[in-house]
Amino acid sequence: MEGEESPSAQYFRTIAPCSDLTLKNICFKYPGAGNNDVLSNINLTIPAKETTAIVGMSGSGKTTVLKLLLGFYSATKGEIKIDDVTINQILPTIWRKKCGVVMQEGFIFSDTVINNIAPGEDNPDLKELWNAIEMARLDDFINSPPLGLYTKIGLEGNGLSQGQKQRLLIARAIYKNRSTCFLMKRPMRWILSMSS
Fold first, then answer.
1. pTM for the full model?
2. Does 16 fall in a domain?
3. Range of the structural domain that residue 26 is part of
4. How far, in Å, are 28, 126, 166, 184 from residue 145 at the CA level?
5. 10 Å Cβ neighbour count for 52?
6. In this protein, which residues make up the domain named ABC transporter (predicted)?
7. Is the pLDDT confidence value at 77 over 90?
8. Residue 149 confidence (pLDDT)
9. How far, in Å, CA of 63 to CA of 82, rounded?
């Protein structure tokens, strides 16, 4: 977000690849929402190259944790570290570029498969593109129609199943970021569709 960096602050402009992510004694309350914390003393380590799921009831704070991890919110207490560097010391735009994020309401363009995975790129890196497709397990879908990567998709993913939409958004996030950190909102639908 433009203008969120303090002009007097000194930020790290690079992040080591494959870094652990640690939340230590995180508390958070929304401004003007009373005195109660919505998150209280959260401790969590997300190891590099590992899959970590944050699960809970609706309204339990999963989205708030996601937004704290992306630096959209600041904790009222505690710290979030990437290896030994607190998230507040990293230029937010640099950190977010390293985060692949798939929200349940992600947008799918009325365009080809390739342009949905690599939007705005005239010459996408096909090796990285196919890596993202395979990681998202979208390759069976792409190899089925005769036009493959150039198959046209309707607005909002019209013509795709929910699982295919989710996989397309995951492939986009993987391709865009070659991610340090990959965050998903409502991943269980995708995980269940992968196992069927």
1. 0.65
2. no
3. 21-97
4. 48, 18, 19, 28
5. 9
6. 39-179
7. yes
8. 92
9. 19
